[in-house]
Amino acid sequence: MIEDISASILLHGERFSPNQAEKITGLELQDKMEVGDIASKGRYKGKAIPYGSGLLVPPKHIDMFDRIMWLVKALDGKIDQLKEIGADEPNIYIGYFYKNQCNLVLSKEELAALAKLEIDFSFSCYDVSDD
Questions:
Q1: CB within 8 Å of 87: residues ≥ 6 apart
Q2: Is 106 helix (H, G, I), strand (E, B) or coil?
Q3: Which tens digit of pLDDT belongs to each residue from 89-120?
Q4: Which of 13, 16, 80, 93 is the most exposed place for a label (fewest CB within 10 A)?
C-alpha cells in the first residue's frame, strides 16, 4: 500500500540562477543556491559552489496522487526558458513510500503528460513497513 509519494524536479547548471528562474517563470523554487554561494553541506561544504540550483516541489497541500501532474503543469511551456538561462536537462524524481507491497501505477494522463515534457524521470521505491 502506498503511504506517500514525493515528487520534485532539480534544476541546476553552471550558468543557472534560481532567482532569475523564479522571476522569468513564476515558479517558486526551494533549496536555492546561486553560483558562488558557500555550500553548507555536501562535497562543496565551506566552498563556493560552481553551479546554481533549485528544487521545484509541489506545495504540501497537494494530494500525493496529484503531485506528478502538478509538476508537469508547473513546467508546461517553461523548459525552454529554463534551458535558455542555463539549466541543464531537468529530471523529475518520484519516490514511492510503501508498506508491504508497492504497486507503482501511472495513469494514461500522467504517462502522456510526462512524455510531452520530453525529459527524463526516475522512480525510487522505499519500504516503510513496520517490520
A1: 11, 12, 13, 16, 21
A2: coil
A3: 998 999 999 998 888 888 999 999 989 888 88
A4: 80
- CA 19/CA 33 separation, integer angstroms: 9
Q: Which residues contact 25 (CB under 8 A, 6 or more apart)?
A: 78, 81, 82
- DSSP 8-state code for residue 99: S
Nearest to 94 by CA among 118, 61, 70: 70
Q: Among residues 17, 7, 8, which one has the least CA distance to residue 82?
A: 17
C-alpha cell at 7: 515528487
What confidence tens digit (pLDDT) does each residue in 9-67 have?
Answer: 999 999 999 999 999 999 999 999 999 999 998 899 999 999 999 999 999 999 999 99
Q: Could you give the CA distance from residue 105 to residue 11 in angstroms, rounded to a whole number? A: 25
CA dist., res. 48 & res. 85, Å (int):
20
The CA distances from residue 7 to 36, 91, 124, 131, in Å, are 27, 11, 10, 26
Q: Does the structure show a pLDDT above 90 at 8?
A: yes
